[in-house]
Amino acid sequence: MEKLQLWLLVLAGLSGAVAQEDLHGQVFVFPKESADAHVILNMNNKGPLQTFTMCLKYFTDLTRPYSLFSYATRARDNEILLFKEKPGELSLSIGGESVIFKVPERTGTSAGWEHICASWESATGIAELWVNGSPLPRKGLRKGYAVSDQGVIILGQEQDSFGGGFDAKQSFVGEIADVYIWDHATLIVALQAANDDSQVPLSILGWGSLQYQTK
Hints:
This protein is mainly β and 215 residues long. 5% of the residues lie in helices and 40% in strands. Its main location: secreted.
């Protein structure tokens, strides 16, 4: 069944109250370049993160840089950031430090929805990125660090300050769906659940019970 489009950001400047909904089969649509339109997500973690796995799906034809997932605190604007630098490159930032993954690009009629999963573990500093079910070479990032729980998650924009500092030329234009974050589930378990549409493990942020606010 074709996904029902949830046109949340069509009216520029329209702010909505915090909602909690099951968004299975629906998407956030970001219809045009903007310096202010975004979605705020609430994460139900109960302390700093020592490990996490984050997955989402997106669909865009942008070739310029854009943000896929931005989590900022008052101390660090890039506490967690998943950012498409350019075709063939995705960067993952933890605690203000970044690594770049080389990503094979889809071409021609194969272009479409991309499924991205990023995972990080403080004890080892190992960062992993999987694209459409295939792993990329692992990187080392921020060993021993703890991700603060005093932050804000934003889709559609890259935060250069806590909850703001947006640049239209880094905004996302396209569709985003199926956003999840786990603080305990392994990357393999998360991927298996996404690939075969099985029961998704209990998450601290989940598309099936998403708390969000449109701006």
